[in-house]
Amino acid sequence: MYTLTKRVLPQHTDYAGVMWHGAYVQWLEEARVEALQAAGLGYAAMTAMGVDMPVVSLHLDYLHPLRHGDEVCVESRCPGQQGVRWPWISRFVCGNAVVAEASVNLVMVREGRVLRRVPAQLQEVMDQLVRQAL
Fold first, then answer.
1. What's 125's domain CATH number?
2. 51: how many CB neighbours lie within 10 A of its CB?
């Protein structure tokens, strides 16, 4: 599991000081990119291989509002490839409370085509992330 720690800043909130729903999606992306980096393959290196990972589905449950100043841990894990999809499961934790839960499915593509076989270097990194999720 990879944990990204964030603080809700003014630019993340609406006029009432509640975190804007779109900021959660940005943090999900940041957590995935940073997890890849921590596992040894930065997103820039992946794109240099000609590989990209677009989101094909996203589900996000908002359980409790976050407010300006809250410190949040985004805990993300990749449980393993399912067909051509790479699911990521995340939860937003503030204090001891889970305030949001998300599932995101990505596919790997090269030149607009879905990859059924992942390049070896990238497969090693993804395998490492899957092992960390257990």
1. 3.10.129.10
2. 19
- Please tell me the total count of domains within the chain: 1
Query: Contact 16/10 with Cβ under 8 angstroms?
Result: no
Concerning whether 14 is annotated as a catalytic residue, the answer is: yes
Tokens of 72: 């949040």
Chain segment 66-97, per-residue pLDDT in tens: 999 999 999 999 998 899 999 999 999 999 99
Kindly report whether the global pTM for this prediction surpasses the value 0.85: yes
As given in the structure block, the two tokens for residue 37 are: 């980096």
Terminus-to-terminus CA distance in the chain, angstroms?
8
Q: Are strands 97-107 and 71-77 parallel, antiparallel or unpaired?
A: unpaired
